[in-house]
Amino acid sequence: MFNDNVIDRFQGLETPFYYYDLDLLRRTLAACSEAAGKYGFHVHYAMKANFDEQVLKAIQSYGFGADCVSGNEVLAALKYGFSKDKVVFAGVGKSDKEIIAALDADIFCFNVESVQELEVINDLAAARNKKARVAIRINPNVDAHTHHYITTGLDENKFGINTWQLNDVAEKLRSSASLEFVGIHFHVGSQITDMEVFRSLCVRINEIQTWFEDRGFTIKILNAGGGLGVNYHSPDQNNIADFDSYFKVFKDFLNVKPGQEVHFELGRVLVAQSSALISRVLYVKNGQRKNFLVLDAGMTELIRPMLYQAYHQIDNLSRTPENVTDAVKYDVVGPICESTDCFRKDVELPQSYRGDIIAVRTAGAYGQVMASGYNLRTPIQSVYSGE
Ligand SMILES: Cc1ncc(COP(=O)(O)O)c(C=O)c1O
Ligand SMILES: N[C@@H](CCCC[NH3+])C(=O)O
Description:
With about 375 residues, the chain is of the alpha/beta class. Helix content is about 30%, strand content about 25%. Strands 1, 11, 12, 13, 14, 15, 16 and 17 form an eight-stranded mixed β-sheet that branches. An eight-stranded parallel barrel has the order 2-3-4-5-6-8-9-10, surrounded by four helices. Helix 4 packs parallel to helix 5 and helix 5 crosses helix 6. The longest helix is centred in the middle third of the chain and has 20 residues. The chain is elongated, with a radius of gyration of 22 Å. The model has no long low-confidence stretch (mean pLDDT about 95). Pyridoxal-5'-phosphate binds next to strand 10 and helix 10.
């Protein structure tokens, strides 16, 4: 990801910025597309992970659909050329304005997260003389075994409709003339690396599919959501996920009927490894108990370590690790006036100096999109290679 030319180029640039290796992104997209194609599966990109313009253009060019979580994401998907027939709109709190925009755009379907939302979509569609295609997002109560904050498929989570409410859903679908039921949707969490979780999900999807079919419904779409994780600890090895093993779980365990489509909504695994947050060391503070590297980027540029105690590899690109005989432990911190503004404590790095270039790796997913303007920070820009 970082050859000498790239590092030389960074020297002349103002930091911080997000660096995108578009070649690596394209290789990742090609691998996913090939593996999904092998099993006849369809992938919608979960745009919430990263909506950088070049990233969206690359993803669209590989024929992926778009999974959106706001009206603005729906509009962005259409703007960047995603086919409206491949745009889905999920989210637990869709406003009337957002629903109307999506109805007007005639997107493929709404992933509906409550019985009341079904009523609202039906009313808004009826008022426009339209039929809204809907998939029911069901909370399957499957534990994703991931960080507590990014689990979405347990009874205690706000997402989806609990199975004990399915009778109400069935009744509402039967009585709502402006809804067309297309399928069932699930998403149990993010950064999942244990394939057993996806096996358990398949078992639940099969059970719920049977429940609907027993009541006379036809399911055209089985949507298994996203959640496949990446390796944050070694971004230079296996930086492209094993998509084949992931999809094979669904091939082997999902009960797919003839004519049905299987959809996925992958976000993180498509974009995480091909980007890094690049910053400079502003100050080296040697305390009695601690050494601090104060960077010019902080929680306003990448909040994952502070929010989820997430691990990101940190490299000093100005020092060659092979020649290091002088490793020092630093707390790598940002400039923001919060004590939690720390990327990681006790990071072993070569002796580092003011002006050194630091890369915080695997930052392409939920990095730039979660940046904030706290402390009136300047919005962070993107730098690309492989355009
Ligand atoms: C409904 C839905 N689909 C897809 C995703 C994408 O998840 P990931 O980036 O883990 O693949 C999310 C985020 O967790 C989501 O909430
Ligand atoms: N933002 C989270 C994941 C949430 C995914 C969206 N439901 C992260 O940084 O890992």
